[in-house]
Amino acid sequence: MSLSAYVMFVITMIFSFSFSTLSGKKFGRVVPIANIFLIVILYISGLFTRLDIGVYTFILVSVILLLITIVCCFLGKNKNKYVDSIKQIIRNPLFYFYIGIFIAMTFAFPKDIILNDFDEKTHWALIVKNMFSYDNFGNIGDTTTMFNRYLPGTGVFIYAFNFFNNSVYGGTNYVAFNILSISLLMPILEIFNKKLSLSFFASAIVVFALPILFKTSYYMSLLVDALLGIYLAYIYVSFAIDREKSDWFTLLSITLGCFGVYLTKTAGIVPAIFALVLIVFDIIFLGKEKIKVLFSKKIRIAYLVIPVLAIVFVMISWKIYCNYWNTRADFGAKVPFEEIKEWLFSPNDFQKEINTLFFKRFFIGNFEYEYITYLSIPHILTLGIYMLLGLLIGKRIKNIKYGLIRAALLYLLFFFFAIGILYQYIFAFSYDESYILASYARYSLNVYLGFALILVYDLIRLFMVDLSEKEINAKKWVWAVPATIYLGVLIALSIVAPRFTMLTSNKIKSEFSELVEQTKDLKDTDNVYVVIVSETNDDVFKYLTSRYLITPTRSSGLKFGGTYTDGRDSNNPYTGDPFNLSKDADEIKNHIIEEGYNYIYLFKINDEFKSKYTAMFGSTEIIENQLYSITVNGDNLSIEIVE
Length: 643
Hints:
This protein is 63% helix and 5% strand.
């Protein structure tokens, strides 16, 4: 693992430790504040195209907090109060778990591990490489990412953990992403009073393993859909824990949660709104009065106003930034209201068919793992689960009406979210993907997981905490139970371990070492035509990997512009074609000239390629894993080996 990851982790720990001491708030509540605050600082500095200033600012704030803590502990009038806060931190098992899981992950993820997902290579990790190249969000100009208006929340956090390397390491990417996720889950466990109990550790295993139930590869993926669900639960739980004693810290947690979830992805506005709706519902149904209870404390109306203002700030600032720098297209396209109206009231044949397929999948679909990764559940079953748990929770708090109505609300919210997914199939996805309802389970994931975590929190609060208080003195479990939780986490990680064990540094060095070596001195303005003659599906992954490794140098493939819907009629609008042997030499030559390629790299070729394009290379020998320079003279090409 890179040294940079350790340095940044220590800095976030200094912030968390100091802020927890000064505020008197529990460590597990403060850690996510520290991590989201890092994202906020980096986002603001990135708006001015200086991400590095954001890192240094966070370090400065952390050091200042530490100095204030030291002064308060030794010179302050209430120094005993701060000393007691420190004692509470070092007695908190979450403090040791957080450190322990970080260290465990640094060993679990080799530094040079290669990415294993299409979207990681085309955006979620690729954007971080561009951040280092340009010291901005990596979306200014003609960079190598496809959707340059995607929000940079996880990207800047991963950037910070790679910062002192001044480059990007695959293992550090995963460690940073996981640390952010785990920190957002920790508040759920801070409701225990007697923490060293079997109930606490059993609950911890459930909470940290739950994301894997819904997405088997969660802890080794940079895709943000499940993270949106974790943010949803974090926002709601931040309120629920403090329901009877709301203060500035509650508001800070909710606001930063809304800021973070929307900054993660535009779709994050949905979990933010859902969390706020659930908060309002709780205020109304669990308050002594009806809607007036919203205004009984100024802090409660602020729950709605300030988090919404945080989201609006991101919306406006990001739009101004993207327009100022003329960043390229985002996912999707603007759809005129008339077309939406037609879909709703008089759909065409395509829309009717997609509507039918979608609602059949929604209500009757199979209980399965889509793509062997994403849990898919028929929503009629989901409704039954919600109602059963709602009845159980309502009975426990002696308010069955609340339990059942909230269960119905969860289902209704999910239904509205599903309509949004259907909208994407009707207007945004390629036709081929719409007909198979591509990524349905992945997009459903964030609401599925968010609601599941909220229900688990309720069950822990109402059943496990009471059970913990009744258990025998838990000190005897001090050594045995931590081992149990680590074992549980390791078992959970082992479920998906085979998916990345073959993608270690040795494979990168052996298969892509020549590519990296020969292109390392190229400029970001250079344009390389990478040839990978496609014979198997694995070649598409190789092609995307080559593009990732060459970045920030431009390379062949995805078009730099337009919207996703520009490729609706294409069979595969995402990935392009590694190399199409159906084109003759003149077509390839004209393509190279038109696109302005000044290099060609023959990553993978075969005898057919050699025989078909010999004339284009002239007297130059055609060699696999070789970089060539291209000189254009009118309609003619001169191709030479780069020594």
